[in-house]
Amino acid sequence: MTDISLWEGMDVEAPPEPNPFDPDRHPEEHAAHDRQTAEARAAVQAAMERQRAERQAGYLAEETARELLRIKARHAAQALWEQEQAALAKAQARDEARVQDGAVFLLDIPPTPPALWGKGEDILWARGEALMIAGPQGVGKTTVAGQLLRATVGLPGDVLGFPVEPCQRRVLYLAMDRPEQARRNLARMFADAEDEIGRGYLAEILRFWSGPPPTDFAADPAGLLRLAEQHEADVVFVDSLKDAAVGLSKDEVGAGYNRARQLALAEGVQLVELHHTVKNGADGGKPNNINGIYGSTWLTSGAGSVVLLWGEPGDPVVDLVHLKQPMNEVGPLKVLHNRVTGLSEVYQDEDTDVVALARRCASTGVSVQEAAGCMFSAEKPTRAQVEKARRKLRDLVRQGLLTERAATDGQGGRGHGDRWFAAASASWTGDEEAPDDRYQ
Length: 440
Prior knowledge:
It is built from 13 helices and 13 strands. It is α/β, with parallel strands linked by helices. The longest helix has 72 residues.
């Protein structure tokens, strides 16, 4: 039964059975049989044609799908290739923009850096250099930053007596540290924004990011620039550094964030950074140098300007010290915060106002040591403080507020070298005193 020969010939189509009816004797049966046979053959042929058509349609559908996939793949590859070429061209353009010949780099330099916040050589924030506003909790870092934000988006008004350059594209504020509290603080300063510049313009010019950043900027240095480009911002406020990168006391973290900062600056993104001081300065007092800023040295080393605000939390009047300068040192200043409007102004303290001191000493004038003691509230000012006071006195002479008498003209007085006298009358006091901006 298993002999393979039993299966031979089984694949051969059987010949059609002959008509069993005699056409002469049974013509009708013979014709009926032929019709049935023809119909059966036609049905088989039709079925075979349908199967052939179905197979052909299936093959065509498969080929169409494959061809469509190939076309999509070609278009996707073309788009990807164009994106890569655009990225390469952009990177090449960036590299070319950063490369300058020696003559351009060394000789074609402006006498003073272009100021984003400042005037003349008194610059608190220079273009292409990050501004860091540091201080302990509650002294008004966000308040000052908010006023810079107002001016940067185009609202009128100087900040602490110095003009601010508006942005060219858009401002991005990274409200990472207590965003709701920052929102309430900033809202006071923008109470007039709808009337001044309009709700639509404000919606277009300003973006806020609330909460932690999408990436740690020290671990992902390109993240800061990527976020700025995503929101088409050419000015970014970082509030605050402790939220932008974790572990700022470590040099590798500080260096990583500084790289993120420099990448953004190199692409024309201007930065304002809010930061904190060390928990305990020398004897618990105000830091008098850059070492009072918390974290790795690379944080301050990479900043162009570092401004320190100092006081107790909630103080209406705080100190402003310019610890690191792009050009001249600004201040020190007393800053008065208006808790109702959220705005600030320079507070003229008679005890630290050199012009007021010169008016009080109308007949004798003031020496540079006396001016330094007044400015820095120091009984024995350091040499650095004396030189800073000397620059301040000579700047006030240029402003027409003081006059200088050299010791060699016999009128310098009391062996203290050059002395400075008030240019205004000594009787100009009290209700007749000039407005605050006279001394800024």
